[in-house]
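Continuing the series of single-chain predictions for the mutant panel. This is the parent chain; the variants come on the following pages.
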Amino acid sequence: MSMIRKIFFIIYLAVCASMPCGAATSNDSLRIEVLLKGSMVENVFPNEKFTNSLDITSNHLILLSSQKNYYVLGWGGIVPIGKKVDGTISSFACTSDNLLMTIRDNEVCTFDSLGHLTVLYTLPNRDMGITAGKYFMYVYDKNRDIEKKALYVIAHGGKYAKLFEVPTSIESVVEYNNSIVFASGNTVYLFSPKNKEMKALAVLPEGKIIKSLTVDSLNNRIYFSTDSITCALKDSTKVLISDKLGGILRFYQGGLIIFNPEKNFLVRLVDIENQITAWNQNKKNTSGTESSNKVITNATIIELVNNQLSDELIIKIINKSKVNFNLSIDSLISLSEQHVSSPVIKAMKIASKKQQATAP
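Parent structure:
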């Protein structure tokens, strides 16, 4: 399925979700908001390529950058801010007190209200990454060509210190409770600064590179992604959110932002925790269910649509049957591709939720 068709489907979901009836049933489904798509950038800033960074400003706008410019993204569109940067921006992050810290070449700089960069530190390597913690900033080696890759911590008003070294590049770093979670190669690691212990939390197949991490601190859940997939992790349980959407992640105000800078594509998934709970419950309820001829599935619905049954009749069948629907993001897209209507998809979601609520 082409990305263009996928974008159009997600836009359709976002429009439906923004309608009054969608808002009233937001707990029944995952809402997807498209915040940026390729045409928005190409029409205004042709040939612009974004870096693998994003953050949220104090006035709730999404901050992006190319190698030379910063941009803010809101519901009104995307606009540049500040002046063109001398050198090359490789990464940036906003501190807890709203100071924008930038990695430019091999320097850590601050970005003032006039758009000027002021150098704070000279770093050991070029093109490093930077992440903001609650009290500290973390700087790390993303360059795969250097021999040893390190994670450094910068305290307020102090010099940076090295925390550890690893053999593979460090792609992303986040604070998690009193520890540090970082992605290196195909693995998500947990590092304890107190006792210097490190352990693997999740491992993807060889060759998969984890590009980004973010944390939902309220629900104690870690999200991680490659270029093409996004997963959630909690208590050693991994949940696949999408096997087609991946990129740079940020969890903000109950929503998961997924940004693909190569395709100028950014979406926000809302009410995702309820959806994960529903997926897990549905998986639990349907393990060891009756034979497939007594339970209707996505394939059953597609077959009914192909046989040209009316939506009204299909919904009646759903309401009277035991169901085992896959309602993941990718499955919803697939259902729409197979001409399953919005009312039928809504009925599938309601039936799944009712079955979960009445399960023993």
